[in-house]
Amino acid sequence: MDILDKLKNREEIYYPIERNRNTDLRFTLYDAFLAKKRFERFAPLFMEAFEEINGPCYYKSDLYKSKLGADVYLKLDSELKVAHSVKARGGFNEVMVKVEDVLKENGMLDKFDELSLNDIRKIMAAYTIEVSSTGNLGLSIGLCAKAFGFKAKVHMSRDAKDWKKKLLREVGAEVIEYDSDYTYAVKMGRLSAEQNHMSYFVDDEMSEKLFLGYAASIFEVAEQVASSGLIPSDDEPLHVFLPCGVGGAPGGIAFALRSFFKDSVRIYFVEPTEYPCMLYSFVHGEAASVNDIGLGGKTIADGLACSAPSKLVFPIVDSLIDGFFSFNDESILRAKKDIEEIDEKVVEASSAAALLAYEKINRPKNSILWITGSNVDK
Ligand SMILES: *Cc1c(COP(=O)(O)O)cnc(C)c1O
Q1: Residue bearing the CA closest to ligand 1, atom 15
Q2: According to the CATH classification, is domain 3-27+58-82+210-371 in 3.90.1150.10?
Q3: What gap in Å lies between CA 147 and CA 135, rounded to an integer?
Q4: Is residue 251 classed as helix, strand or coil in its secondary structure?
Q5: pLDDT (0 to 100) of residue 229
Q6: CA 149 → CA 14, 92, 142, 153, 171, distances in Å?
Q7: Chain-centroid distance, C-alpha 328
Q8: Ligand 1 centre from 112 Cα, in Å?
Q9: CA-CA-CA-CA torsion sign (187, 188, 189, 192)
Q10: Model confidence at 1, in pLDDT bands (50, 70, 90)?
Q11: Where are the beta strands (DSSP E) in the chain?
């Protein structure tokens, strides 16, 4: 059967590709390094703003040796404090850059080290940050924006979980709910921000700041790979499985992994059969919506419910990754249960999809399943 028919029939797919080795990846590891330095520079402010943290536990996660296979690890972004997902990486970087930009506009950036959290809050109070989300990005951006004194407006698609909206409202963010999908929420968020010249819209489909925040993960990953039993080589590469929604998070992480490990890493994107937007666009030859082929309904993997791919990541996806996977809700739920029972880790359905891909290609040695979020129900 033709791949397009398989997509339309919501079949589970493994689609390996011949990686393009000649594309310019647009960014360098130095760009990612600068994002990492930003996290370090802002750390004292974060620790003042959030009681629950006393170190980098809100942007650095453990690499945990799993019992799900002989040589497989879980990258536990599900256990990140504050934002509870991979979105802490991109979202916090985006807000920190905005803080720096505002300080610069006001001629105060060179005094950064002398400013207290309260000083920063007073200056940021005149500005609004808006974002559209299926839940986790809104949570990350909204919590961080409020912590630094911004007004925050979060446009949530119908997929967003109640506890995330509740938590945002508790810290004073405005949450606008749509009974529609993520693409629609993006449209409304962008429109809303255009009407207020003091408002800044975080564009998940285009943002380089989100992308580089995700990419900054490479420095902790390299450290953890070196101190674990993983020894990546071209013959026995690292295998990294990344759940993919719009593609920003897995794209940023993949860019950095590829730049760092070159041919000693195989990278895979994993999508739900209802929203295989990156794979469909790849097969189609241009960025397109899965609505065009009749997909885009409900899925248990709400964090991946994006109908069209990132315009930043899609053009380079063939240089980043070695293949695509898609899985249906039934399989994803089974995987979630396995991780929760065998490794005793509470995970979001979206992240459990990584396990299915690992199993489908017969549990290769040196595997990392990126556990992108948890399902803490607050
Ligand atoms: C957002 C998200 C992803 C994927 O990130 P994209 O940038 O949308 O591709 C994966 N898992 C979880 C839990 C997420 O919240």
Answers
A1: 303
A2: no
A3: 18
A4: helix
A5: 79
A6: 45, 14, 11, 13, 11
A7: 20
A8: 32
A9: positive
A10: confident
A11: 13-16, 63-65, 72-76, 128-133, 151-156, 174-177, 199-202, 238-243, 265-272, 323-327, 367-371
DSSP string, 99-123: HHHHHHHTT-GGGGGG--HHHHHHH
The residues with which 75 forms a beta bridge, in sequence order, are: 63, 370
Span from the CA of 114 to the centroid of ligand 1 (angstroms):
36
- Report pLDDT for 23: 79
Return the best residue to mutate from 355, 372, 375 for the ligand 1 pocket (most ligand atoms within 8 A of CB).
372
DSSP 373: B
Domain boundaries along the sequence of the chain: 3-27+58-82+210-371, 87-207
3-class secondary-structure state, position 376: coil
Nearest CA to ligand 1 atom 1: 303
- By C-alpha distance, which of 104, 152, 66 is closest to 347? 66
Indicate yes or no: pTM above 0.85.
yes
> Exposure of 1 by Cβ count < 10 A (0-12 exposed, 13-18 middle, 19+ buried)?
exposed
What CATH number belongs to 87-207? 3.40.50.1100
Tokens of 226: 């070196």
- How many angstroms is it from 245 CA to the middle of ligand 1? 5
